[in-house]
Amino acid sequence: MVSIFYISAIIAILASFKVITGTTLYSALLYLVIALLASASIFYSLGAYFSTVLEVILFVGIATILFISIRSYLDLGSPKFKQQEKGNLAPKFWLGPLILVFVLFVTLLYSIASTDYSLLINDKSSINSMSLEAVLLGPYILILELAALLILGTIIVTYHFINDITLTKDSLSGKPNKATVNKPAKK
Amino acid sequence: MIPLMHSLMLASALFIIGLLGVMIRRNLLFVLLSIMIMMNGAIVAFIAADHHWQQLDGQIMSLLAIITTLAQACVGLALLLQFYHRRKTLNIDLLSEMKG
Q1: What pLDDT is attached to residue A186?
Q2: Could you tell me if residue B100 is inside a domain?
Q3: CATH no. for residue A71?
Q4: Is B10 in the A-facing interface, judged by CB distances under 8 Å?
Q5: Can you tell me where the transmembrane regions are (chain B) (predicted)?
């Protein structure tokens, strides 16, 4: 567990540094995914399994997909987009992320191999008396409701921000409408 | 048992890297990515405290922090779409119309 923590910490710091010094968004997003996966394995080595699952599902699964979709929405009209996609397959683009992710993979294999499975069969101590679900649905239920209200507020705010864009611009074809192409954007 | 000091050093290193990214990058997308790294460092600090005192409060606060980060990413990306729609650029220095 200790070695998993330190290896993942080094990977997280290296990948985070590559995120802020990245030149293209796609490479920065690749490194961001690696940094988030490395911090997920840090949480695993610290014993916070629920947060590991949340980090992988919410951060890696939702947030990075959101960034990729926004970026491709911005790029859709430009003819450079297809050329850029070809450039993304060059080895200098994926070699660095591949090395970092391979080290993470080796630590994952090590943690799977070093688990003592005979303890898991009759283990009652993993379901301890103060489990997370009992606390979360008991005294901390207001935190859950606060999170739900936060998501609701986010949906409403986001809808109002991008409402007029989706009304005036044909978002799928990427071509601006005739109504908006002649007059410059207001303000 | 990992000492609390090492976890907190990792958390502050991640936070400082994110802060550096916010300060040196002028592309709005990269600023949002750097804010995500900063929040990731804060969540690592929560989990480290959770591990050190063997309490569950840190995990619950990390749940709230993860959802807050997602919410700010959503609102930030919506603002970015508005900004790109009006200015056709992503440079946030162009936003300082008041020269403040």
Answers
A1: 42
A2: no
A3: 1.20.120.1200
A4: yes
A5: 6-24, 29-48, 60-81
Does B28 lie at the interface with A, CB-CB under 8 angstroms?
no
Based on the domain organization, do A59 and A98 belong to the same domain? yes
User: Would the pLDDT of A181 be above 50?
Assistant: no
Tell me the residue type at A26.
Answer: Y
Identify the CATH number of the domain in which residue B55 sits.
1.10.287.3510
Q: Which one has a higher pLDDT value, A125 or A84?
A: A84
Amino acid identity at A139: P
Q: Is B16 on the interface with A (CB under 8 A)?
A: no
Q: How far apart are CA A74 and CA A169, in angstroms?
A: 12
Q: Quick one: which of A114, A169, A159 has its CA closest to A3?
A: A114
CB A28 within 8 A of CB A40: no
Smallest CA–CA separation between A103 and chain B, in Å?
18
Which residues in chain A have their CB less than 8 angstroms from residue B61's CB?
143
How far apart are the C-alpha atoms of B22 and A51, rounded to whole Å? 26
Distance CA B85, CA A69 (A): 16
Mean pLDDT, range A100-122, rounded to an integer: 83
Q: Is A174 left (phi over 0), alpha (psi -120 to 50) or beta?
A: left
Domain-ending residue, one of A60, A80, A115: A115
DSSP 3-state of B43 = helix
Q: Do A51 and B69 touch (CB under 8 A)?
A: no
Mean pLDDT of chain B: 89
**Which residues form the domain of A83?**
1-115
Q: Best interface-test mutation with A: which of B4, B5, B7, B14 has the largest number of A CBs within 10 A?
A: B14
